[in-house]
Amino acid sequence: MTSVQTPGLTRFNTLPESAAQAELHEVCASTAWGSKLIAQRPYATAEELFLASDAALAELTHEDLSEAMAGHPPIGRPKPGDPTSSREQRGMAGASEELKAEMLELNLAYQEKFGHVFLICATGATGEQMRDAVRERSGNSPESEREIVRTELGKINRIRLTRLVESPADSGEEN
């Protein structure tokens, strides 16, 4: 991993705290996770940021993890107008109506059993792969599933943090 700081990482390191918090909230809805990352700025490299993210994620309480999961829409139903969840769930976009209906049913059964949305790093996964994962994971114990969710959240956070640090120093977008 290179030690050269990307323009996006430089921008993130120098953002006012409230703006940095807002950007991190788009990555992960856990306030505790975001606060831990903010407190450790500046980061010399993206890898340093990723390691801080992993450490913060490992320390999340049950409540913090629930807060993080609440920021994710169910698979097959990305938030309207949210390009991030739409991009990540692209594998469901071309799915058949039967598969979409089955995912809705599986999502609801999963949520009933575990009390939270089915969370998977959907980037690059097909609709069938996501369906198979929810079927398989529905048999887990709540404790086992919570740790799988933590792992999946870590994958999602890394993908989203990568996009954040690789973005141009000034994207020209209004916030």
Short description:
This protein has 175 residues and is an all-alpha fold. It is 65% helix and 0% strand.
How does this model look, in words?
The protein has 175 residues and is mostly helical. Helices cover 65% and strands 0% of the residues. It has ten helices and no strands. Helix 2 packs across helix 3 and helix 8 runs parallel beside helix 9. The longest helix has 25 residues. The two termini are 31 Å apart. The C terminus is likely disordered.
Labels describing this entry:
175 residues; 0% strand; 10 helices; globular; disordered C terminus; mainly alpha
List the helices and strands and how they pair.
Layout lengths: L6 H8 L2 H11 L3 H9 L6 H13 L3 H9 L12 H6 L1 H4 L3 H18 L12 H11 L4 H25 L9
Helix pairs in contact: 2-3, 2-10, 3-4, 4-10, 8-9
